Amino acid sequence: MQASRRAFFRTAMSLGVATGAYPLLGGCATTDAEAQARNQIVPDPERLLDLPPGFTYSVHSRAGDVMDDGLLVPISHDGMACFPVEGDADRCVLVRNHELDWDEIGEGPYAAKSALPDMDKVYDIEPASGEPQPGGTTTLLFNLKDRRVERSHLSLSGTIRNCAGGMTPRGTWLSCEETLEQAGAHARADHGYVFEVDASAKGMVTPLPLKAMGRFNHEATATDPKTGIVYQTEDEDDSLIYRFLPDAPDELAKGGKLQILAIKGQKTANTRNWTNPTGFAIGGSWEVEWLDIDHIDNPANDMKMRGAAKGGAVFARGEGMCFALQPQGAAVFFACTSGGAAQYGQIWKYEPSAYEGTADEARAPGKLTLWYESPGEQEMDYCDNIVASPWGDLTVCEDGEGESYVRGVTPEGRVYSICRAGGGNDAEFAGACWSPDGGTLFVNLQGPHLTFAIRGPWARLARG
Predict the structure, then answer these.
(1) Which residues contact 133 (CB under 8 A, 6 or more apart)?
(2) Is 265 exposed, middle or buried, given 0-12, 13-18 or 19+ CB atoms closer than 10 A?
(3) β 49-50/88-98 pair status
(4) Nearest CA-CA partner of 223 in 293, 325, 292
(5) Of the candidates 110, 109, 77, the residue with the CA atom closest to the CA atom of residue 96
(6) What is the DSSP string of 279-344?
(7) Phi/psi zone of residue 171: left (φ > 0), alpha (ψ -120 to 50 degrees), beta?
(8) Which residues contact 358 (CB under 8 A, 6 or more apart)?
(9) 279-289: per-residue pLDDT in tens?
(10) What DSSP state is assigned to residue 121?
(11) Pick from 69, 235, 303, 322: CA 20 to 30 A from residue 347's CA?
């Protein structure tokens, strides 16, 4: 790769979490490279994971495995992040979501009742069974040298549908509930919140809902390490994009202000391109403003409608989100799974204002760019979780209806395949994240309910 051709940035995780300089994420073009990409994938005899030549995988932490705390690995592995271990380059920590709803208790960590939970650290109970809600997170200590899990345990308990989230510069994982379940027949407490999990915790954390960040169908977050502002996506066909201005950036529980994104001069802008394919052109940029939103506890489950009526821009299923720092400024990338004229996905880039979150923000507003739009399912089939790769492309998990892939998208907009679910499996990939040294890609596959660790000649793949 020619370093002179691309500028360099550092991912958000590199500030206080991991260190590394990576190429700039930047192009806007759309190119069909599907035929070439498919030819690079070799079928797996085990029918688990198809990879390019020279790449290998190992399987870890399957659903039903007994963890070190005596509990079981739940099903539905979802969003995930990788953290370094201070002073130990051979190990890293994975914090992983499990997207279980209230009626999936039998598939959760307590299914075999092999260990009693610490009820003081369980957020909520399913009323009919009296058991903890099955969602939450697990934490894995992974040995990169030996390619094995050395320790694993339940780290967040009693939540529902923990879908995606985002890492923070202080070494924590923000785990997001994708639900609007309220206290009633299926829950004793309201759900639809963000919870913070310390990656260094050796057991279950105290489950504290970050209520000031809003109650809605949360999907993912991205934290600006400079300002502490947290950006959030919402998984709805008519979703909004949110930002949270914390009163204390390192202590989100102290509260703050929730706002929604609006495009200047376009009240309730419809960014989905469903009915007007040329409404938002690939590569086009628009100035934005942020509007306050009230009643963030959302008792009527109508915040997205109220926000749109107020002028908030409407997006098609906001899902994965990641943060990047570039020499010319910061950028937040987020996926809209069913956006675009073909309805197979969009990826947007938001560049914050130099005065982001301050009274001077209107002097130089933030800018929103349609960075990529899928022309059809053969190139990108429902982009979901996203993360920046060590060489500066985006690594994208698909959640489509056909064969499932993990894709790469270059700064020029070329799409290529990193791996494919084996045996024609259409299960969702989720939680793609890179080891601190950039040598291992971790990713979850929901069908078999397991985590892969993938290694190979990444430099060759990066050159395309």
Answers:
(1) 100, 102, 105, 122, 123, 124, 125, 126, 157, 158, 159, 160, 187, 191
(2) exposed
(3) unpaired
(4) 325
(5) 77
(6) SS-TT-EEEEEEEE---TT-TTS-HHHHHHHHT--BBS-EEEEEEEEETTEEEEEEEETT-STTSS
(7) left
(8) none
(9) 899 999 999 99
(10) G
(11) 303
Give the model confidence (pLDDT) of 196-205 as tens digits.
999 999 999 9
Assigned token pair, 31? 């190119």
- Provide the whole-model pTM: 0.93
Q: In which residue are the tokens 């419809």 written?
A: 270
Q: What type of residue is 199? A: A
Rg of the chain's alpha carbons, rounded to an integer?
A: 21
> 82-96, 316-330, 404-418: lowest mean pLDDT where?
316-330
| DSSP per-residue letters across 421-432 | EGGG--PPEEEE
As a whole number, mean pLDDT of residues 58-78 equals: 97
The CB-side HSE value for 169 (13 A sphere, CA atoms) comes to 21
User: Residue 427 carries which side chain, given as an amino acid letter?
Assistant: A
| Integer Cα distance of 343 and 256 in angstroms | 35
Residue 327: pLDDT band (50, 70, 90) is low
What's 14-34 look like in SS3?
HCCCCCCCEECCCCCCCECCH
Q: In what order do the strands lie in the sheet with 346-351?
A: 22-23, 8-11, 318-326, 329-336, 346-351, 367-373, 285-292, 256-263, 242-246, 230-234, 218-223
Neighbour order of strands in the sheet with 394-398: 49-50, 415-421, 405-409, 394-398, 383-388
Backbone angles phi, psi at 319, to 5 degrees: -130, -110
Q: Which strand (E) or helix (H) includes residue 305?
A: helix 303-310
Phi and psi at 226, nearest 5°, equal: -80, -45
| 343 Cα distance to chain centroid | 20
Beta strand 346-351 with 329-336: parallel, antiparallel or unpaired? antiparallel
360 vs 454: CA distance, rounded Å: 45
Q: Which helix (H) or strand (E) holds 35?
A: helix 34-39
Count of Cβ atoms closer than 10 Å to residue 202 Cβ = 12
If phi over 0 gives left and psi between -120 and 50 gives alpha, with beta otherwise, what is residue 431? left
Q: In sequence order, which ranges of 146-212 are alpha helices (DSSP H)?
A: none
Given a cut of 60, is residue 236 above it in pLDDT? yes
By three-state DSSP, how is residue 39 classified? Answer: helix
Q: Which amino acid does the sequence have at 127?
A: P
Check residue 400 and give its pLDDT: 87
**Torsions phi, psi of 264, nearest 5?**
-60, 130
Write the burial class of residue 311 (CB in 10 Å: 0-12 exposed, 13-18 middle, 19+ buried): middle
pLDDT at 114 over 60: no
User: Six-digit token pair at 133?
Assistant: 């809600």
